[in-house]
Amino acid sequence: MPFTRTIESALTDPLPDTEAPIAGRAAYQALRKRGLPFVPVHTGGGCFALSLSLPDGEILVTDDDGQIAHDATDHHAWLACFYPSPSSPYDADEDDMTEIYLGDGTLSFADDCTALADALTRWVAARRADTGFVLTS
């Protein structure tokens, strides 16, 4: 089925019974429930990621194929990386980024979403303790 909604609608709006959720929907909701105000961003080429801006950089979350806007049934594993400012996450050198979470591909979709949210919650809390920043939605 072609992707016909806005990415925001696909993440938050009620879905009819005939529409399969995109993979990013469950991750987005798990992150938001933990107080992490991730937002969708277009990363180019029709791909979308979840983004959390921090005072010293940005966290991007994608499926291991670089996309959140595919059917959840096609999900493999989540990948979350931190890109420090002023690097652009779209052309950052691998040495500039920090991998926060990479699912190993063996977890169920629900368990991978939970593991992603747990890892990001811990990482952001540790970074907040170190730097004192405040998250805003």
Q: What's the topology here?
A:
Layout: H1 7-12, H2 23-33, E1 39-44, E2 47-54, E3 57-63, E4 78-84, E5 98-102, H3 109-131
Antiparallel strand pairs: 1-2, 2-3, 3-4, 4-5
Helix pairs in contact: 2-3
Q: Keywords for this structure?
A:
single chain, 137 residues, alpha+beta, 3 helices
Low-confidence stretches: none
Put simply, the count of helices is: 3
Radius of gyration: 15 Å
Query: Which range does the strand content fall in?
Result: 15-25%
Distance between the termini: 32 Å
The order of strands across the largest sheet is: 1-2-3-4-5
Percent range for helical residues? 25-40%
Report on the biggest sheet. 5 strands, antiparallel
Average pLDDT, all residues = 87
Structural class: alpha+beta
Elements, N to C (H/E): HHEEEEEH
Shape: globular
The tally of strands reads: 5
Walkthrough of the structure:
This protein has helices at 7-12, 23-33, 109-131; strands at 39-44, 47-54, 57-63, 78-84, 98-102. It is an alpha+beta fold and 137 residues long. It has a five-stranded antiparallel beta sheet, with helices on one face. Strand 2 and strand 3 form a beta hairpin. Helix 2 packs across helix 3. The longest helix has 23 residues, at 109-131. It is globular and about 45 Å long. It starts with 6 loop residues before the first helix and ends in a 6-residue tail after the last helix.
